[in-house]
Specification:
This protein is α/β, with parallel strands linked by helices. About 30% of the residues lie in helices and about 15% in strands.
Length: about 400
């Protein structure tokens, strides 16, 4: 595979589907779709127009676990990122980064050493790894191959815990993958994931970011409203048995599905990823106000469910439409604050500091800015909050939700 510049657009070639995703929605849920009319006004249009290709920003975290790895490779442009050089703001403020990835792919490596290099300017005490289709087993039962990722990250976490790599503890929490559409048959997968890392495995992400061409090379398999699917929900019902949380990753067009899921299973914690992926590219380009207006009531409805907490960040991807990767120089933290404040302030308003946690989404968001600049933005955004509120958003909420050790 030939390397391409991080943030470029590439054709997405997916491998063959391995797991049947043709389950139909329960008729009882059809009435829920009526509440989505406002969203759907801007849902079923083309996502991309410039090239008819898939922007790499959303792809870099890996494709859906039901597919073989995408046939692309990308490496962050370190020389470009270095053009914007800022010292860390409040470098002693303790941070838990609750959302990053690790992988070692041809032409694209992001492992312990790269992450530690990125975090060194800020006081990152510990981190949470989130699944990204990395290091699956090459054989064995198909549904259990995802356990290879947890085994891999458990090894990285053990290296970090040795203390030989500094004070930061990487992957004290691990979020893995499981195909919840297996229904009751997902139980052995969940048990195998926990067995692979009994002291660190905390939850599951089954991605529900549904899209159709040309946002992806082929229409996302399975039902558009995956979170309403009865087979998925049967599998989801087992998370509470094992005390596992669920990472809710959807685009802004499907946030209401996540709210419905939260209301149906109030005793399962949901972590809302990336602000619900507000789309800002063709045909959403130059329609920010319209997207924002549709996004706000969906987020407000989701926030009513006390079992939902929110990750604040993850919106510097190509799909979000800022176009940072196309600039001659990366943005400063002040530019990020100016561009993102409305979205973040609304999250604070709806969820409150005790249900918010800042996230890096690295290395995916690294296509747009450095780690230092990204967290400087978060610190500047929160200067008006109390010390306790800031401690919650930078550290304590993540520690509580993921049940992390004191480091």
């Amino acid at each position: 595979m030939a390397a391409v510049a991080f943030g470029a657009t590439v054709n997405l070639e997916l491998g063959p589907c391995k797991i049947d995703h043709n389950g139909a929605c329960d008729p009882k849920t059809f009435s829920n779709l009526e509440r989505r009319n406002n969203m759907n006004e801007i849902t079923r249009r083309r996502f991309f127009g410039r090239t008819g290709q898939y922007a790499l920003g959303g792809l870099a975290a890996g494709i859906l676990p039901q597919f073989l790895p995408a046939q692309v490779s990308a490496q962050p442009r370190q020389n470009w990122l270095a053009l914007t050089n800022e010292p860390a703001v409040e470098p002693e403020l303790p941070i838990i980064d609750p959302h990053h990835h690790l992988w070692d792919r041809p032409g694209n490596r992001y492992m312990l050493e790269e992450l530690l290099e990125d975090t060194r300017e800020h006081n990152v005490r510990q981190t949470v790894f989130v699944e990204c289709s990395s290091m699956y087993r090459s054989d064995g039962p198909e549904e259990l191959r995802v356990v290879g990722e947890t085994e891999f990250v458990q090894g990285v976490a053990a290296k970090s815990a040795s203390g030989q790599y500094g004070e930061t503890r990487i992957a004290t929490g691990i979020v893995g993958s499981a195909d919840l559409q297996l229904g009751d048959r997902v139980v052995p997968v969940l048990e195998a994931q926990i067995a692979a890392s009994p002291q660190r495995f905390r939850g599951v992400r089954h991605r529900a970011a549904w899209a159709e061409p040309p946002v992806v090379a082929r229409r996302t398999p399975g039902p558009e409203h995956l979170l309403l699917d009865p087979d998925f929900r049967q599998g989801y019902s087992h998370l509470r048995t094992y005390g596992l949380s669920f990472e809710g990753w959807v685009y802004h067009t499907h946030i209401t599905d996540l709210a419905d899921l939260a209301g149906t299973f109030p005793d399962t914690t949901i972590i809302f990823n990336h602000l619900g992926g507000p789309i800002g590219i063709e045909p959403y380009a130059d329609r920010r106000d319209e997207v924002f207006a549709a996004w706000k009531p969906a987020v407000a409805e989701l926030a009513k469910h006390q079992n939902v907490v929110a990750k604040v960040g993850g919106i510097q991807m190509v799909v979000n439409g800022y176009g940072w990767h196309e600039m001659d120089q990366p943005p400063t933290s002040d530019q990020l604050v100016a561009a993102n404040r409305d979205w973040y302030d609304y999250m604070f308003e709806q969820f409150g500091p005790d249900r918010c946690m800042f996230e890096s989404n690295f290395p995916v968001d690294k296509l747009s800015c450095s780690y230092t600049v990204l967290w400087n933005q978060f610190k500047k955004l929160t200067t008006a909050f109390s010390d306790d509120e800031r401690a919650a958003m930078f550290h304590d909420t993540a520690m509580r939700v993921y049940r992390l050790p004191h480091v």
